[in-house]
UniProtKB/TrEMBL annotation:
Family matches, as InterPro entries: PA3496-like
Lineage: Bacteria, Pseudomonadati, Pseudomonadota, Gammaproteobacteria, Alteromonadales
Name listed for the protein in its UniProt record: Uncharacterized protein
Organism superkingdom: Bacteria
């Protein structure tokens, strides 16, 4: 049986995630946020279409 555990990052890890030290890390973080935002928007639209009975996505 598998056990799922959540690991809470410590303060140093949180700071590294929120305050990147170089420009490449900043660009990567911004790109990930944009991709996540687009995915969430797409999923929200798909859920709305499904709720309205329009299952054709394309």
């Amino acid at each position: 049986m598998a056990h799922i555990t959540e690991v809470v990052p410590n303060d140093t890890e949180l700071e590294a995630m929120t305050n990147p030290k170089n420009s490449k890390a900043v660009e990567t973080m911004q790109h990930r946020r944009e991709v996540k935002r687009r995915l969430e928007d797409y999923l929200e639209r798909a859920e709305l279409k499904r709720a309205l009975g329009d299952d054709d996505f394309f």
